[in-house]
Amino acid sequence: KSIALKFDKTFDFVSKDAVYGYAETMKKHNEALHNKTGKGNDFLGWVNLPSSISETELADYEATAKALQAKKIELFVVVGIGGSYLGAKAVVDALSDSFAQLKGGDKPLIVFAGQNISEDYLYELRELLKNKEYAMAVISKSGTTTEPALAFRLLKQDIEDKYGKEEAKSRIVAVTDASRGALRKLADTEGYKSYVISDDIGGRYSVLTPVGLLAIAVAGFNIRALVQGAVDMEKATGVDVPFEENLAAQYAAVRNELYKNGKLVEILVNYNPKLHFVAEWWKQLYGESEGKEGKGIFPASVDFTSDLHSMGQYIQEGERKLFETVISVASPDREVRIPTDPENLDGLNFLANKRVDEVNKMAELGTMIAHVDGGVPNMLIELPKLNEYYLGQMIYFFEKACGLSGYTLGVNPFDQPGVEAYKKNMFALLEKPGFEEETKAIKARL
Ligand code: PA5
Q1: Active site: which residues (predicted)?
Q2: Which is the most buried residue in 54, 85, 296, 308, by most CB within 10 A?
């Protein structure tokens, strides 16, 4: 079984012929990705990544996860930002009990740090960690990113104070470049267990490397099934797969055709709040890959039906520059049936004996029809179930489609030069050594 993509509800806005007209272009771009002949071709390690993950690597991540779990840790702190955080967060949230943080359980909970510079967040996290058993992963490909480096400086001291330097070492895992960056030097000097992020895989394409897989394994999820899903999608979107069967090529074609026809914003929609961070991961993947040179679809997201009561009005009747891509999970894991109430004071007996999911699915269908009627084209990505295997398929599907889509747009989908602008100003304002000229210039503007 596979995830499915349906896009017939875009044909009121773009023609079917125009979409299928992308077949040749997509084939060419797919070849460029596989043959490494396109823009950003030194960052294409993700293309064949799933099928090249070895048994030894998987066993290694699992063994590290087991060794950490054996310390009876309650929390696993993952220090990282952007691509060094969102993939693990997306998968762990999608697979976890909605109330895991309150219910507890026999597997460690994953908490994050270094994904912001909030003083309150760091204070409150450090307070929490005082009374918990925990271990930590510090993840930074460049090894120099300010947010995680700052958080790790604080958390490293705390973990050493709590457990002593030697024991702390066995509770810290570093994931970074093989040789470059401050974190590599620190990890080697301290003697932490460390994993390498390969040079040719950018942060936002790195969830299926130790960047994502380690935390997912520590949380107790099946990384083999996740990787298998990605392996199967790697095959299903390969160069020899015709456009009619290649979901990634189809998705890339439809969204580019919509963009050409004035649909500038894509909203990723879910009807299951566990997918909230899948959308955050997706926003980074597409926003950072395509938003450049004055171009690119703006990736947005909503959680329905919650946000139908906030953003629903705009989507139905606001600027007609939107399209939606709905992630729908065919079968929920749990069953809840609506009871009969003889008094029927709430008037809900028309729903008696139905599953809650049936109501959710009718909300989904009704919304799709309403939004299409209101001028918002809709695509649907259907996952048979929310499990590791289909998440693995979905991750690779989105990655492949993003590469194809970026090439179709004519940009390099694997760089992010624009991210430097805020860093330069922040360093200038903080008077970082080496930024003396920038400091003078920015201060003159204040
Ligand atoms: O996709 C990317 O490359 C970025 O979002 C990075 O993941 C993010 O900036 C964090 O970088 P690093 O892992 O070097 O700390």
Answers
A1: 288, 423
A2: 85
Q: Which atom of ligand 1 is nearest to the CA of 288?
A: 1
90 close to 206: Cβ distance less than 8 angstroms: no
Strands 265-270 and 193-196: unpaired
Instruction: Check whether 157 has a pLDDT greater than 90.
Output: yes
Predicted confidence (pLDDT) at residue 404 exceeds the cutoff of 90: yes
Q: How far is CA 14 from CA 96, 184, 295, 318, 376, in A?
A: 38, 49, 20, 20, 12
Catalogue the active-site residues.
Answer: 288, 423
Residue 374, phi then psi, degrees to nearest 5:
-85, 0
How far does residue 10's CA lie from ligand 1's centre (Å)?
A: 34
What is the spatial distance between Cα 240 and Cα 245, in angstroms, rounded to a whole number?
Answer: 10
Taking the whole predicted model, whether its pTM rises above 0.90 is answered as yes
Q: Is 146 in the pocket of ligand 1 (CB under 6 A)?
A: no
pLDDT digits (tens, 9 = 90+) for 21-37: 999 999 999 999 999 99
Span from the CA of 340 to the centroid of ligand 1 (angstroms) = 52
Could you read off the pLDDT of 44-70 as tens digits, one per residue? 999 999 999 999 999 999 999 999 999
CA distance linking residue 304 with residue 281, whole number of Å? 18
The letter for the amino acid at 169 is K
> What order of strands is seen across the sheet that includes strand 172-176?
109-113, 75-79, 134-140, 172-176, 193-196
Q: What is the spatial distance between Cα 109 and Cα 36, in angstroms, rounded to a whole number?
A: 39
Supply the residue whose CA is at minimum distance from atom 5 of ligand 1: 82
